[in-house]
Design goal:
The chain has 29 helices and nine strands. By secondary structure, the chain is of the alpha/beta class.
Length: about 675
């Protein structure tokens, strides 16, 4: 390999890719020689050494040994986390920074999702006053029997020590928080605690509360670990050791224990939450992992690694959430570097790592106002029909969907935060909920009315969860697929459920319009004709040229014609020949100037259908030789047997359209 100097990072990667085999071979050969001889002089000017996790691995003898073996090599270090201030020498070891890719840039590029941070009730001193306050807030939405059941459980935990009380309250709060906001969406969570016995206490509490499913993932204990009573009713020698023996009995080995639980967490509905101590807080990638509940001290590199577990991109995932019960970052009102746990980092390196959930919630009033601003021209704000007609314009509808989506995302975040309830009047919260319900119903109605495709990915998880959890409803807002007009009875029932003659007419007209668009290539002339009739009917109604009833009857007649593929303006000999009927439209359009006798065009259409029928074989539309044979036969027929004097341009136009129709009709 000849010496080459890289001009840019992209050029460097190009060199590496082109010469990777020779580079790897050279590095291995020279390193092996160096190990054998303990010392060797190597001309390594053309060798690149790429070092991953360079800020953690380059302070011992390994780096010195590499530099000794490959003295003149080009060393490039990579790291995925910011460098501590006292580790900036890492960069110096590699000759300074080539490039920095900040967290803000990664979020902008959508390589990761942004992280929202919330500090929740941290009870350092568990006394009666904060417990009563917390208990009253939790009980507010519960029924009489639910409150009684919760009081019974609290009577039990008051007998436990302070640590047990705190674990129980955190477990209850996590159960409520997760079940209300993520349960049933496919997204998952982790809770990080400080000790293995605490992890088992959390597991016991979660199981007793019964709202979420959990598994504990810990490393193997040594022989002395865990021999203490975790609960008052347990026998001696219970705890961590007993748990581990049960896991080994259940899974057979530690590796299988880890493998199966992690696989279930990533791919199955359960467990919903993993309880961890140190494992799975670094180097663990599960895109559906969305929430990290922190109930242990974390700082510096470990903290950044842990919170990165929930910033992986996943479909439908807008944010990762960090819920802090330990008070690690306080209120996050200042720069992260101002706090002791991250004070060893330069602020510019970690800016954008976390956003206080309160900052996102502050945008809710503006997003709410932006949504209502779309309808500022509406005079009667209680007339749903006026809203639906106002959204007739497709561009306005899409703006409405966009603003509603933005509002719903932030409302969902707000309703998951205890601070929002503390700082926002109940009347205002209820107004947000009621209006969200109204706009969501409006969205469903206009999508049905104007025959728009429903995006189920959005409904199934986030919006439906928000509706089910926070918006009380006296009726179900049911999201369903659009019923095809050919499903006569079902579509008839769907239309019957719509209130108002104009709304019924719009549903029929736009659903028929969508059917025409989907089937257009099967019979372009026929569908073009009825498409124009539909557009005219819709326009006439919008301009008040026809009444609601006239609009409804016109739309109904057009739908019936499209559904039955019925056109009264064609020769009788074509009535039972559906495909020839499609060819007829193309032929008559091309030849009527030479011969406007419709029966002549009908006979040509029937003959063309016969030519295609005798030539087609399985997958003919994928075989050029078969298609060429069909085109030749059609060309000969049109030129020699029709006696119309068609020129080759006219023949080519007919052939192209006829074969395209045949591909749609004879290739199903």
């Amino acid at each position: 390999m000849e010496p080459v100097k890289a001009k840019t990072g992209a050029h460097l990667m190009e060199i590496l890719e082109k010469n990777k085999k020779s580079i790897i071979t050279a590095v291995l050969d020279k390193f092996e020689a160096g190990v054998k001889k303990r010392s060797v002089e190597v001309n390594s000017e053309n060798i690149f050494v790429l070092v991953d996790e360079s800020h953690r691995s380059q302070y011992g003898s390994a780096h010195a040994m590499m530099k000794k073996v490959l003295q003149n090599a080009c060393y490039i270090g990579f790291t995925g986390t910011p460098l501590l201030k006292n580790e900036k020498s890492t960069a110096e070891k590699f000759g300074g920074f080539i490039d920095k890719y900040t967290i803000n840039e990664a979020v902008t590029d959508k390589a990761v999702v942004p992280l929202l941070y919330e500090g929740r009730h941290v009870l350092q001193d568990v006394d009666q006053k904060p417990i009563d306050s917390w208990f009253n807030r939790v009980c507010e939405p519960l029924g009489e029997y639910q409150v009684a059941d919760l009081k019974k459980k609290f009577t039990k935990i008051e007998k436990l020590n302070l640590t047990d009380q705190k674990i129980y309250m955190i477990a209850y709060d996590v159960s409520e928080h997760f079940s209300k906001n993520w349960q049933g969406t496919g997204f998952k969570a982790q809770i990080a605690t400080d000790k293995k016995d605490a992890a088992l206490k959390f597991k016991r509490c979660f199981d007793e509360i019964g709202k979420v499913t959990t598994e504990v993932v810990i490393s193997a204990p040594d022989e002395r670990e865990g021999y203490e009573n975790i609960y008052e009713n347990e026998e001696p020698n219970e705890g961590v050791q007993k748990f581990w023996k049960n896991m080994m009995k259940r899974f057979g080995s530690e590796s299988e224990y880890n493998k199966q639980i992690i696989a279930s967490f990533k791919h199955d509905a359960h467990p919903e939450i993993l309880i961890v101590v140190d494992k799975l807080l670094t180097g663990f990638d599960a895109p559906k992992n969305t929430v990290l509940y922190i109930a242990k001290p974390l700082k510096e590199h470990t903290l950044l690694q842990a919170i990165a577990r929930v910033n992986r991109v996943c479909e439908g995932k807008d944010y990762g959430f960090i819920i802090d019960y330990y008070g690690i970052l306080g209120e996050l009102d200042k720069a992260l570097s101002a706090y002791s746990v991250l004070s060893e980092y330069d602020e510019e390196d970690i800016i954008g790592t976390l956003t206080n959930i309160k900052e996102e919630i502050k945008t809710l009033p503006q997003k709410y106002a932006d949504l209502w601003d779309i309808f500022k021209e509406i005079k009667n704000r209680v007339d749903e029909e006026e809203y639906e007609q106002f959204l007739f314009d497709e561009e306005v509808r899409h703006k409405f969907y966009e603003k509603l989506t933005a509002f719903s995302k932030t409302l969902s975040i707000a309703l998951s935060s205890e601070k929002f309830y503390e700082e926002t009047p109940e009347k205002k919260i209820n107004k947000y909920k009621d209006d969200f319900k109204f706009f969501q119903k409006l969205r469903v109605s206009v999508k049905k009315r104007y025959a728009e495709v429903v995006d189920f990915k959005e409904y199934e998880n986030k919006i439906q969860k928000l509706l089910n959890t926070y918006v009380s409803s006296d009726e179900v807002i049911k999201i369903t697929n659009l019923v095809n007009i050919f499903d006569k009875e079902t579509f008839k029932k769907e239309v019957a459920n719509v209130v108002g003659q104009a709304a019924k007419a719009d549903m029929i007209a736009h659903r028929t319009k969508r059917t025409i668009e989907e089937r257009f290539e099967e019979d372009p002339v026929f569908y073009e004709k009825f498409s124009k009739l539909l557009v005219k009917a819709i326009e006439d109604y919008r301009l008040a040229r026809i009444t609601d009833l006239e609009y409804f009857l016109t739309a109904q007649n057009i739908m019936d014609a499209v559904r039955e593929h019925k056109d009264t303006d064609i020769p009788e000999i074509l009535l039972t020949k559906d495909t020839a009927k499609a060819f007829y439209g193309v032929v008559y359009e091309a030849v009527n100037a030479k011969n406007n006798d419709k029966n002549v065009s009908a006979k040509i259409a029937i003959d063309l259908d016969a030519i295609i029928a005798r030539n087609i074989i399985v997958d003919w539309h994928l075989k050029p030789d078969v298609q060429n044979k069909i085109l030749n036969d059609i060309e000969d027929y049109l030129a020699d047997e029709t006696n119309l004097g068609l020129n080759y341009e006219e023949i080519d136009l007919i052939m192209e359209k006829v074969v395209n129709i045949a591909k749609r009709r004879y290739s199903k």
